[in-house]
Amino acid sequence: MGTSVFYLVAFLSIFFSLMVIFAKNPVHSVLYLIVTFFTFTVHYILLNAQFLAVVNFIVYMGAIMVLFLFVLMLLNLNKENEPLKSGLLKVVGVVAGCCLVVTLIGSLKATAVSDPLVLQNPNLGLVKNLGKELFGPFMLPFELSSILLLTAMVGAVLLTKKEKV
Amino acid sequence: MDITFVIEKFILVAIIFGISLVIAMYSTYAERKVAAFLQDRLGPDRAGPFGILQPLADGLKMFMKEEIIPTHSSKWLFMVGPGLAMLTACIGTAVIPWGSPITIGGKIIPLQVTDINVGVLYIFGVVSLSVYGVMIGGWASNNKYSLLSAIRAASQNISYEVAMGLSIIALLLVTNTMSLKEIVEMQHGWHWNVLYQPLGFLLFIICAFAETNRAPFDLPECETELIGGYHTEYSSMKLGFYLFAEYINMFVSSAVMATLYFGGYNYPGMDWVLQITGPTIAPLIGTAVLFLKIFTFIFFFMWVRWTIPRFRYDQLMHLGWKVLIPLAIANVIITGIVIAIVEKF
């Protein structure tokens, strides 16, 4: 049962991420991306990581994608007023894409089949255990990353100020 | 997973869904009656005694109206919008404990669809999704007023979510759990969280007004500036869904506030009533008490709507970012310090 659900959700994840790329309209792309994130949430639940699942749900689906949609709606990109891309740009795009594919295939061939990682504690993803881990052994990295985020936030606020501070 | 479990949950879900719809339906009637009461009018009084059939008449009217889909709209999303608004409004009820476990024929049935250990965050997640119905509908209409309204809804929702999340953090510091069932059980015997978190509750209720798009935060449907707001292009039952979703949202957020801050189904003298009436009737009385609290909140929502005028957009942003968020952060810090001191001594 678990594996078949996983394969179904994995298929949906890949399908919707492909739809993100193939959709012509940028707003449709973002909507497919939201569905993709939703399938990720289901993956986390299957892995018994409830906290991560619900945070992914709140932060990515509920906040970041709303802002994405917000910006795209504000830009109002329609097919009618989209500037035509020059031929040179298309050639550059194709070449860059092929380079990426070659690199990906090369790196995939280089990796061996990994050992399935056995989780020491399958309940690690529950809130209580995760909190104890984060504020115990991983205290310093956790605090450092939060300072990093704070710095980025202050920087973003500073950039929006027009006058000299 | 045995079959009785599935049937039991299915019946519970059906009942809760039905109750939410009926309450939302009669909230529209109550809103008119409350408005009439506050403005010294009579309100609807023609359909049935005291106009009690008015919601049915309104619903019939909505269904009978002509369905118009604008030619330059994106049709699929235009239809998804109202559906999404209804969906996100309804799924929040899944984690709310509607009563203490009830005993029917020797079998104990919990009056909660599911008790997940991140219940509070689930509610928060559902709230953060609720803006998509408005945004998608507003954008798909291909009307600049609808689009402006969708953008307003998005920025308002994001802004007030921050303060709401911070007020929930202070609450979680007090409760030490995210399971709504445990939060309600902890409040047994006058340990209502509102007594420990008065500021947190004030912030939460303001944000709840903003998240449900109720006045004075109903800027996305500000008709003086935006015609009808995000549902300008909508007609028939699609418009009905949008209006209906607002009332369901109001019901769910009232239920959440009653559960988180006002003791849920707890009431004074509960144990005494349990001894007298037995384990079948007593939980039902608890449920009735919970609904009484919910109706009080719904009345409060309406009372505010007909009392306070709508904010200006800059006032809205000022209140959200410069007043509520600093207050919420201060609340978290003070709560943390107090708890540390109490635990020390």
From TrEMBL, chain A:
Pfam families attached to this UniProt entry: Oxidored_q3
Bilayer topology annotation: Multi-pass membrane protein
Gene Ontology cellular-component annotations: plasma membrane
Annotated InterPro entries: NADH_UbQ/plastoQ_OxRdtase_su6, Nuo/plastoQ_OxRdtase_6_NuoJ
Main subcellular location of this protein, as a coarse class: membrane
Membrane spanning stretches: 6-23, 30-47, 53-75, 87-108, 138-159
Catalytic function, reaction form: a quinone + NADH + 5 H(+)(in) = a quinol + NAD(+) + 4 H(+)(out)
Catalytic EC class: translocase
Localization: Cell membrane
Keyword Secreted: no
Gene Ontology MF terms: NADH dehydrogenase (ubiquinone) activity; quinone binding
Keywords: Cell membrane, Membrane, NAD, Quinone, Transmembrane, Transmembrane helix
Enzyme Commission number(s) from the entry: 7.1.1.-
Family: Belongs to the complex I subunit 6 family.
Task of the protein: NDH-1 shuttles electrons from NADH, via FMN and iron-sulfur (Fe-S) centers, to quinones in the respiratory chain. Couples the redox reaction to proton translocation (for every two electrons transferred, four hydrogen ions are translocated across the cytoplasmic membrane), and thus conserves the redox energy in a proton gradient.
Protein name (database record): NADH-quinone oxidoreductase subunit J
Natural source organism: Pedobacter cryoconitis
TrEMBL record, chain B:
Catalytic activity: a quinone + NADH + 5 H(+)(in) = a quinol + NAD(+) + 4 H(+)(out)
Recorded GO CC terms: plasma membrane
GO annotation, biological process: aerobic respiration
E.C. designation(s): 7.1.1.-
Localization of this protein: Cell membrane; Membrane
Summary of the function given for this chain in its UniProt record: NDH-1 shuttles electrons from NADH, via FMN and iron-sulfur (Fe-S) centers, to quinones in the respiratory chain. The immediate electron acceptor for the enzyme in this species is believed to be ubiquinone. Couples the redox reaction to proton translocation (for every two electrons transferred, four hydrogen ions are translocated across the cytoplasmic membrane), and thus conserves the redox energy in a proton gradient. This subunit may bind ubiquinone.
Protein name listed in UniProt: NADH-quinone oxidoreductase subunit H
